Every structure is written in C-alpha cells, then in structure tokens.
Amino acid sequence: MPEPVIVARDLVKTYGELSAVDGISFEVAAGESFGLLGPNGAGKSTTMRMVGAVSTRTSGELSILGLDPDGSGPEIRSQLGVVPQADNLDTELRVRENLLVYGRYFGLPRRQVAARADELLAFAQLEDKGKAKVDALSGGMKRRLTIARALINDPRILLLDEPTTGLDPQARHVLWDRLFRLKEQGTTLLLTRHYMDEAEQLCDRLVVVDKGVIMAEGTPAELIRRYSTREVLEVRFGSDRNAAVAEQLHGIGERVEVLPDRILVYTDSGEADLVRITEAGLRPVTSLVRRSSLEDVFLRLTGRSLIE
Amino acid sequence: MSALETRTDAQAAIAAATRPRRWGFWYVAEHRFRVMRSYTGTVVVAGIGSPVLYLYALGVGLATIVDASGTTIGGVSYLVFVAPALLASAGITAATEEFSYPVFLGYKWNPTFTGIHSSPITPHQIVDGVIVSVVVRLTVNMVLFYLLMLVFGAVPSATGFLAILAGLLGGLAFGTMLMSYTSTLEDDTGQIAMVMRFIVLPMTLFSGTFFPLAQFPLWLQWIGWISPLWHSTELARVATYGYAEPVWLTAVHVLVLVGLAVFGWVLSRRIAVRRLEK
C-alpha cells in the first residue's frame, strides 16, 4: 500500500456554535479516487476546503502530501487542482486567457503555460472556443473550462466539489469521460456528491457523511452489500395510499421503506416480490425493479433521502 | 521507501511554491492588467479627455471671470491654482473606480479571488497584487494629467513633476481605505453608489479644490483636514507652483497620506484573510 497522500484524523471545523465537520477521519492513497457522499450541509464542502488548504481546521490532524496546511498552504496548493461547486472563472477575460492567468499563479513560465493551455482546451473539447467570452459558454462548457483550469499545473490531487451539478445528461457524460481519463492517468481524485449516479463507478472508495460525521466507509460494492439488499422493488400506490398499503406488506422482502411518493421493498428478488404483492390483491400504479444503489445505503444509514 | 516517497512529494511541493511565494503578488497584478486591457480605451480616453475638459472649463473658462476680477489666490492665476487640485481629484476618481466594484466583484459577484486563492497565492498577495496594478494605472493617469497641465501652461515650478507622486499618494490613501470597506460588503444594495455620492463628491467640494479651504468657516474646515484629497491637493500645489505653506504642514500631508494608505492596505489584507480562509 503506497503512502497516503491525504491523511485526516478527527478533523473538526466549527463556526461559532455550529460544527460543520465533527471529527472526520480518512486516508486517500496516491492514484485513488475517493468520494465524500452526503446530503447538502453534511460538511463535505467544508472538508474539501480544509483539504484544499484554504480553510483552517479547528482541531484534529491533517496532512496533504506529507505537509500541514497550517503554514504550508501555498506548497500544498501548488500540487492541487480545485474544481469548486460554483464556477469562479473570470468572466471579464476570454476562455483561453482564463487558463493563461491561472497558470501564472503556479509560477509557470509564460511559454509553458501557453502550450499547456492549448493542450487543455483540446482535452476539454473547447479548442474553437479559446477566444470566446466565458459568459457565451454553456454550463457544461464552463464546467469543462473550470476542470481544464484546475489541471493547468498538472496536479497530483484533483479536488472536485459537486462537479456535475446542474448539467444536462450529455454534458455530464462528457465530463465523466474526462474524469475517467484522469483517473487512468493516475491522478488522485477526491470528489463530493450529494447524488451518486456515475460517481459510483468512478470512486474506488467512499465515505458516507452526514451532519459532519462519517457514517460508513468502503468501496461502493461493499457498502451496498453491507447496508442494502441486491435489488430494490419500487412500488407506487398514490401518495395518499402508500403508508396504508405498506402496513400490508409485512413479510415481503427484507425491509420496507416508505417515502412520501413511493414504497421501497429491499429484497433479493424484486420480480418475485412484485408477483406476491399483486397476488395479495394490491395493485400498484407503477412498479420498478432496480439494483441497490448508494442512495439506498444512505437511506438505510440515516433514515433520510439524499435529495430532499 | 514509502517515507522517502512522501518526503519527495513534500519537497516537490516546496520547490513548486518558491516562485509563487515570492512573485505571487505580481501574478495577481498581471491578471488585473489583462482585465484592465479590456477597458484600456476608457482609461486612455478618460485619462486624456477628462483633464482636457476640466482644465479647459475651469482653468481657462471659469478663470477668465476669476482673474478678471483682479483677485489672485496666493499670487497665481486661477488655472495654476486649480490645475493641481484637478490632478489630485483625478487620482482619487481613478482609485475609486479600481477599488470599488472590481474588489467587490472579486469577492462576491464573480468570485475570482476565491479561484485565485485555490492556487498557491495567499490572500495577502491578492490584496498586494490589486494595489500594485492600481499603482501602475494611477501612475499612467497622473503622468498623462501632468503632461496636459504642461500643455496648458499650468506648471510654473520646476518641481512640478512631484505632483504626480502627490496624486498617486492621494489615490492610494483613499483607495486602500475604500478597498477595506468594499472587502467587507456581503451584498451591494447601493452602498458603493452611496460612497460615490456622499463621500467622493462632497470631498471634492470641501477639500479646497476650487477655492482655498480657508474660505470656509472653521467648523467646516475639518472636512478638508481629514480628506485625503485636501492633503494631496496641497502637496500638488507645493510641487507645481511653490504654494507657500510651513514645511511641517507639507510633512503632515505626506504623513497623513502614507499613514492612511498603509492603514488601508494592512486592513484590506486582514479582511482578505478573514474572508477567504474562513
């Protein structure tokens, strides 16, 4: 096992009375893709900011590439690429100029930055947009430009805070494709999501965070195995009837979860259970059998849905 | 082996941060220059146009009435009297432009400062870089203004070029204080416009710009004493036409302006750390 590039122990961040992060510990190995999964306000972004050496921790230990962010902020940041939740590109500059000025912040010579900027524009599929105004780009393009900017210094670790929020499916697809390529190249990725979709495949390991603490840790498959069943049967009886019907589902599946709009039956065979439900004379308006996801893990761990 | 690897990581990071630690402020200034380039036209046209307009309207137009009445202010023509004040005022105006909206923008509207801070650049360096870039822009403004004053024949004294420094100091004194204020704004619900209307404009009227401060009753003169514009104007007058004032007073002007500039600078740096590293 190679030496971890990020080590956090009992990391705490409080703002006055409020503790945003309340004793989080994790390690990320070089080349690993590590995810922080949790709802908005769980402390993911605060953790990211501490790892990004832009927010001082209240207590606990934190080491990035063997350095302490207290005192070695610039050194650590020289090795990071940061994709923030909200784009903060300079809209007063053109697309390529954003990369040029950013590269200089790492002390790179102008010529090197210019060459790198062109490579990255190609990587981000923005070759023909170099002279465009930032505001003229679509949401997906801006996101790709932000990622390109984060890569200008060839970072050892890339921090991505909700990288695909607000993008249409096609733009998301392109973005994930780029992230997979970076992973293949050996870049360490640390990303947060409040919704797991493709990240499930990208992350080697993840922690589920809620209210500033870690609820569970493992590979996506492990977590699903440990906290959920193989399949999930989703049935809808109409929002006014769901709760009443759920009473009658005792003995079906391993566990039943009632959400406002649907009932989730955790089971090893969704089809078989669906047959049992209809045989019992219950007629769902719609039904769906799917594989368990991290969303189900989160629901099990916290009793709440990730997206509220 | 693994310990050696970590050490190499750390060493690589330390090496990579050497240049940003030293030159970071300059990279920020470079960034600002690039942004300013998008409004170079405005800077140059305003930098030439507005001195020409003011010098002509006041120094030539209004001056015909003032000079015709036979009264002189301290023995010089009205043009010579008003020109250094107009230069000082132009310095404050340009500084106000650069330290108001662009600073608020960097923290809030288009949080480029947050983006810059994700790189090795520190909050202190962001503030330093912004100030350095404004010093360069102000210098261009002040030199242009001074050259036009020469064209208008408004500079009898050989030490006139020192007015450029006076204008620069005035702009920085007011500008860095303004920056520390705009750095604290969470929302702009008209505060910046209020600053222009209720601080910059009255300051221009009550700082001995168009007539000597002594014309005011004593209970209004204090506005001038605390106004960076008055100190900068008086300094510029000493430089361009040898305006007679005690040496200690000239020293006070310099001290007040330098003091305010340093105070505003340090304050802006502190606010930047608090705001960007919370």
Automatic annotation (TrEMBL), chain A:
Question: Record's InterPro entries?
Answer: AAA+_ATPase (IPR003593), ABC_transporter-like_ATP-bd (IPR003439), ABC_transporter-like_CS (IPR017871), ABC_transporter_ATP-binding (IPR050763), P-loop_NTPase (IPR027417)
- Residue ranges of domain ABC transporter in the record: 6-236
Q: Mention any one GO cellular component term assigned to this protein in its UniProt record.
A: plasma membrane
Q: Which SUPFAM superfamilies match?
A: P-loop containing nucleoside triphosphate hydrolases
Q: Name one GO molecular function term.
A: ATP binding
Keyword ATP-binding attributed: yes
Keyword field: Antibiotic resistance, ATP-binding, Cell membrane, Membrane, Nucleotide-binding, Translocase, Transport
> What is the membrane topology here?
Peripheral membrane protein
Protein name as it appears in the record: ATP-binding cassette domain-containing protein
- Species the sequence originates in: Orlajensenia flava
UniProtKB/TrEMBL annotation, chain B:
GO cellular component terms given for this protein: ATP-binding cassette (ABC) transporter complex
The answer to whether keyword Transmembrane applies is yes
Q: What Pfam families does the database record attribute to this sequence? A: ABC2_membrane
Q: Which residues form the ABC transmembrane type-2 domain?
A: 42-275
One Gene Ontology BP term is:
response to antibiotic
> InterPro entries from the xrefs?
ABC2_TM (IPR013525), ABC2_TM_bact-type (IPR047817), ABC_2_transport (IPR000412), Nod_factor_ABC_transporter (IPR051784)
A GO molecular function assigned to this protein is: ABC-type transporter activity
Report the subcellular localization.
Cell membrane; Membrane
Key words of the record: Antibiotic resistance, Cell membrane, Membrane, Transmembrane, Transmembrane helix, Transport
What are the transmembrane regions? 42-66, 72-95, 134-155, 161-182, 194-214, 247-268
Q: Which domain of life is it from?
A: Bacteria
Signal peptide segment: none
UniProt membrane topology term: Multi-pass membrane protein
Q: What is its main location?
A: membrane
PANTHER family with a match to the protein in the record: ABC-TYPE MULTIDRUG TRANSPORT SYSTEM, PERMEASE COMPONENT (PTHR43229:SF3), NODULATION PROTEIN J (PTHR43229)
Similarity-based family = Belongs to the ABC-2 integral membrane protein family.
Give the protein name, as stated in the record: Transport permease protein
Provide the species name: Orlajensenia flava
